[in-house]
Fold these 4 entries.
Entry 1:
Amino acid sequence: MVVLGGGTAGTMVANKLRRRLDDTWVITVVDRDDAHPYQPGFLFVPFGGPTRSLVRSRHAFVRDGIELVLEAVDRVDPAAREVVLLDGRLLPYDFLVIASGAVPRPDQTPGMLGPQWRRTIFDFYTLDGAKALATALRRFTGGRLVVHVTDVPIKCPVAPLEFTFLVDHWLRERGRRDATDLIYATPLDGAFTQPVASQRLGSMLAERSITVEPDFLVERIDGTALESYGGRRIPFDLLVTVPLNRGADFVERSGLGDELAFVPVDRHTLQSTADPHIFAIGDASDLPTSKAGSVAHFSADVLVDNVVELAAGRELTHSFDGHANCFVESGDGKALLLDFNYDTEPLPGTYPVPFVGPMRLLTESRVNHVGKLAFRWLYWNVLLPGRPMPVPPAMSMAGKKSPVTTS
């Protein structure tokens, strides 16, 4: 069993498989380095959040009995059932799990990686980018601050909104908000992909006097302005962008990816549509749901159950429903929580215990904010080791309210 990627999804899957498969199975995890980042923590770094312990050793979270190989992947050869590493080594496999994630690619947008990169144009999806942005914000006294999403899908699709709410609050605290035009530019037709959540989040942006530029698909960056394919221009003094996200290059070289190098899979079984011996999970797949840690978590049990069944020569019987939940930091020590799946959009209600909570869905609260901060401990100590979580993988409608419609 070979797992390509030692991030969130790959580490969870490998640890869970080691518990489920007997010792006749050799499990190997491959990643290019020994640095495992806690990516949700990057969001807080521009506002003075801690940087210590955001990156830890991958070795520390891989169970005994799993081999961790530190080398980049050149390609997968499905016909030979081999992984070819960049140093020329070959790793044969009976089953392969691709968990290589999504990678921000600022080089894919003309002008983004020009002389203004990390001077007036910043990202926060990398630790280096978040640190550089922290310095830029301290120096920012006012002007046009634009938060921009290049295209979808992206890792953690609510993160740009969270940054927008947090920077609004940060500027108000420092008396700089009145001197700042804050703009949110998105290729979507609203604040979010789901109608109920989009309406709620859109109204929160409006309440904070944040201008939304919808349906903005950037063609290039010309100095200090975004230019869309339709000829629209958005000037900026400070640009915080989410570059185009793509899958791993080896996926493209192996002929296993779509146009963005994400692996097409059956959305319920997580099995590759090209090869039954290959599965993909987390941000590496083309699942029609959020590229978020919660999706990796909820789908991991389903994937492991299916791999174990397939290894035993049985048919796959477990199905992933697209369950995702996302905390949305909204500033002032509050946050919202979204819970949804393939068929049900985010709705009001309570989570994780129906009618009890303590967290409330689609509602700003301090409890939700505390929940997001507490997740860091759960991530390192429960999620990555593959220990059971007291939350079922499938979404439940218990405790949720249907949206009120008016004619």
Entry 2:
Amino acid sequence: MEKTTIALQLKEKIKNHTAIVAVVGLGYVGLPFAVEKAKVGFRVLGIEQNPVRAEQINNGENYISDVKDEDLNEVVNNGKFQAVTNFERVSEADVIVICVPTPLTKNLTPNLSYIESVTAEIANHLRPGQLVTLESTTYPGTTDEVMLPILEQVSGLEEGKDFFLAYSPERVDPGNKRYTTRNTNKVVGASHPVSLEVATLFYRQTILHVVPVSSAKAAELVKVFENTFRAVNIALVNELTILCDCMNLNVWEVLDAANTKPFGIMPFYPGPGVGGHCIPLDPHYLEWKAKEFNFNTHFIALAGEVNRKMPQFVREKTWRVLNQKGIAPSRANILVMGVAYKKDLGDWRESPSVEVIELLLKDGVEVIYHDPYVTNLSVGGFDLASVELTDRTIESADLVLISTDHTEIDYVNLIDKAQIILDTRGVTRHLDCNQAKVVLL
């Protein structure tokens, strides 16, 4: 079959939404993506190797806050969305979208084991006329240098002629009510022009604005740059926070005043560190790749170093506040407010709040926590459960540490009942309350 005919047939299926879409990995990226595709009529096959999650999907049970319960139930009940735990049905799909984790090793080098294993599984079932796209954040070159050889060598097929390959980085911002999968601009890159054409058409079916770029490598760099930009700027304000602490200045006052300038500045704020699946990890992918070219990314390395030190800074400031009250940290009782990496979410991956708790536990501090979104937590060999936030709980703590600024917390009452508060998020700074009780980071 001519390559133009294969591409035309796939494009026609995509345009009339008769294409079957397989989504590998039904987490924070994959599940919202799968539901969006099923909502417009595509038949979606979710490949989720966690059997508990797969069963939840097939029962219409939602576990991702960015997905509406009614949307998931609708596409499951009408037969448009089904989850399986293996790759045996991959050959049924016309489009295969990979949304698997890309963690780092202990040495801060890329761990592509999930991408590699999934690609090998797909290659075993690859047939002519399929589009494969990768959405996982990774270093520039992964799609062409890691995935493409596996797909071609195992399947015996040729990319751009028999099948199509592209990279389109996820831009999920968990908890963001304004920008969702549908209305967040989507970058797509492929190193073969026909692959780019097919992939761009596919993403345009459910995303309002698609931005094609010249290659998969360019699209991969777009993603890591976006998160590196944030990491560097957060590191800047975190370092400013430590300097202001040395100079006995209020960093929040400085930042609030600086951000009144109507041009030439962008608001970034300090905190106990950085967390989640992007900012603590992704810049190191670019840092690692740069060494292949004998190039040292000094800004990226320094930003990571500064951000990783913030939990230790919070621990040291906690000690100082306790010592000023005449309480030895090893005999202190601390209530930590929030363990999620971001407000109004239940995700505590790479959360700096968890690292702060672990440091305090090692000091012998008695730590309890309250988080309306995270009911249980394992940290430093301890199993903790979120406590009920009663007046008695607040009053009995020697110090309340605000580590995650969930919006549903009554911070005025918290300040009223607490003995003293260390606020690492600046959430209390504009409240009409007894500010003498509050120590800002």
Entry 3:
Amino acid sequence: MLAPRIGRQALQGVVACSAPSTVTLPGFLVPAFQTLAKRNFSATTSRPSKLGRTPLLVPRGVDIEISDLYLKKNMTSYLKTYKRNVTVKGQLGELTLEIPDFININHDDEARTVVLSVKDSEHKGQREMWGTTWADLNNNIMGVSEGHTAVLRLVGIGFRATVEPRPEKEEYPGQQFVCLKLGFSHPVEMGLPLGMKASAPQPTRVLLEGINKRQVMQFAAEIRRWRVPEPYKGKGIFVNDETIKLKQKKIK
């Protein structure tokens, strides 16, 4: 069906209605309108990081060294970026953390505590890095004193794991390899990064040890990628306390 024709008078009325018009507010409404226009979407006030302002406890036998600021070149920006290094030494090794210049570190040797603060707690980027830096420094302190571990569980028929040397493939002397049998036509062999140790207390268990938590969990994720847990039979490689919710089978 054809659309009805619009008369000339009706068309002129539509054009007149769509023309912009100037609205004048009364004088007593102007201050309220200006306040409403400047108001942000979120009314939540900015608060300092609860995690970042918590003091870090430094155990006995762990030393912390803080370097001076240095200029770090950034190829993606013309702005000058200043950094400082925080070196943590312990009985298990040594780790270095690079932190931005707006984070201040107050290290009390007598009380064995470290307190982090930022220059501007109202700045969103500084608040975000406040808690992140606290967590990274805490992981380094625990790593050089106690170490970090990750347990891999192999769930599936025929899934097996061993830790063996491979002299013809090693990248550094004494490198260990995690050898996995995951149902493929060939075994999966993955070399450990430098500074990490692995053991297989059971055929379906792999224990990873290291002082760098990020390195340990990254290597565990690379192993898990070969057999990601699937939700129908519950087979796969699980990291630490990872669980999965099983689904019902698709019945046609």
Entry 4:
Amino acid sequence: MQSQSDKLVVLVTKGIESELSSVAFTIANGGIAAGLKVSVFLTSTGIDLVRKSGQRMTHVPPLDPLSTLIENFQQRGGSIWACPPCVASRGYTQEDLLDGVVIVGASAMHAEIRQGAATLSF
């Protein structure tokens, strides 16, 4: 029998070019509103979502602008993790990313899953 968890991990592989990035953060914010501890793990072009000013390039009405969705997510206690090789392959460093974003390997995501976190992928 699977145990219940109050954790959600959202894996985001789509960047500023995709409406799925806004959908992912809308759902992540909804998870926090539902009382879940939510972490977002960014890979591939998803890294560009947390490059300083990168998220300001995306707005998918009627959803809130991506920059607002990410800001709200962080203010409400959501964690944002960025894949180290994906950050490096773009030539970014920690200083290029939004405050509060943690460059960390998939092991952080795996630890949450081992503790029963639900997962969603975008």
